Write the structure tokens for this entry.
Amino acid sequence: MSPAPATALSQPKVVTGDYGYVLEDVPHLTDYIPDLPTYPNPLQDNPAYAVVKQYFVDMDDTISQKIVVHVNSPRGTHFRRAGPRQKVYFKSDDVHACIVTCGGLCPGLNTVIREIVCSLHDMYGVTRIVGIEGGYKGFYSRNTIPLTPKVANGIHKRGGTIIGTSRGGYDNKKIVNSIEDRGINQVYIIGGDGTQKGASAIYEEVRRRGLKVAVIGIPKTIDNDIPVIDKSFGFDTAVEEAQRAINAAHVEAESNENCIGLVKLMGRNSGFIAMYATLASRDVDCCLIPESPFYLEGPGGLFEYIEKRIKENGHMVIVVAEGAGQELVAESLRATNNKDASGNKLLDDIGLWLSQKIKGHFKNRTDMEINLKYIDPTYMIRAVPSNASDNVYSTLLAQSAVHGAMAGYTGCTVGPVHGRECYIPFYRITEMQNKVVITDRMWARMLSSTNQPSFLSTKDIIESIMDEAPPTQLLDDQVAENGLVNKETTVC
Ligand SMILES: Nc1ncnc2c1ncn2[C@@H]1O[C@H](COP(=O)(O)OP(=O)(O)O)[C@@H](O)[C@H]1O
Ligand SMILES: O=P(O)(O)OC[C@H]1O[C@](O)(COP(=O)(O)O)[C@@H](O)[C@@H]1O
Ligand SMILES: [Mg+2]
């Protein structure tokens, strides 16, 4: 069968219905290869699933992005519900699947790999599954790693990724050539915002060439900077692991006179780890994140607050996200514009800089000698194995990805929206970053738990509200009654 000619770039598939219902649907292989044969889903004969009353997902099931509604609210945006379908578009023997992990580590990568392998093998009888070694560049520069349930057995108890990862090395044409040459027809791409952009471009090229290849993204972000989904796998584990550093900082601070425990946590552009770790700990007196500007000197500044807390308590704990206060560091050091292999800006070390500034400020104060203990657990919070809850989360995610590919869906990321797994078109994942909204309730809860100043002027608040405008379109569920965009943080 000759493939239908594909247009330059695929267009969003948007379906509208009554009362403002909008379905942001995902591509399907039949969009560009018509008349593909279908097969009964082998799961219908699987003893574990055969007894479930309604195991297969109804074709009309969609998940609402809007969870808080008023009596007359339009129904708003919906996503296609993930899960097994009655009919599949691949014969088990014909499937040749590959898995790749890209970007920084995240707890749970091995769990997702294991669960993709086991779901393909145990549910769909697929035997040809390979790992692409060392991220995107492995497609064209390395041999593949055969993956079987035996190889994947127990890997979820280890941190990292057994197939390796990397930044940079993305070459769209070479990657799709490799997919085509190896006869791969299901591609599972696990990675963060950069990876999903790459995955989207791989899907477009696959479609342009008319290949019967399902491309499914699985969102991985320790920073929790991917929009739409509730949160990423590994995020809970990272927040839990961060408690160990905060506890150590608190013990040091409490035991030494006038002592400040300073902890730096990951969070390049989004301060979710710092915010949640602070809320969970309750020992933190100040949390600094990239989304909330702060200043050191003068009334309402950080130094004034430190002095107040030390006088009141004799100690304090500060948590700073790595991306916080970058503009302050750039002002006092010679600004650099170095980037990593993927093009992400390399950050200046806010933790060391802040330690020096605080020490420098109190150095000449004979009435208040301070002691500062700096803890930088950066890689320790992401190199650990995932906790039990992230393992369950990763299992659902991987199974949903496999069901989607088998059902012929492609060009999408899988992830939970209000606790239900969905297929989300790539463009919704890549168009913006998820950030802590400092005019939102969660940040207010955090502020009230630490009692820190907000460091904000009215101008900052207005700017922060304006920054929330989605770059491409105003979605009705993001427009509050006062006309301002008021996107809730997606982690609840
Ligand atoms: N805009 C992009 N288009 C295509 N590939 C990209 C893009 N941004 C990043 N990548 C590739 O995705 C991979 C991971 O990106 P990176 O930003 O390092 O991590 P993450 O996916 O975790 O955000 C790298 O191999 C990088 O080259
Ligand atoms: O030193 P590396 O490996 O580049 O990783 C550091 C970066 O990785 C992260 O943990 C996550 O980044 P990605 O999601 O882009 O992989 C950032 O918080 C951090 O800045
Ligand atoms: Mg990233």
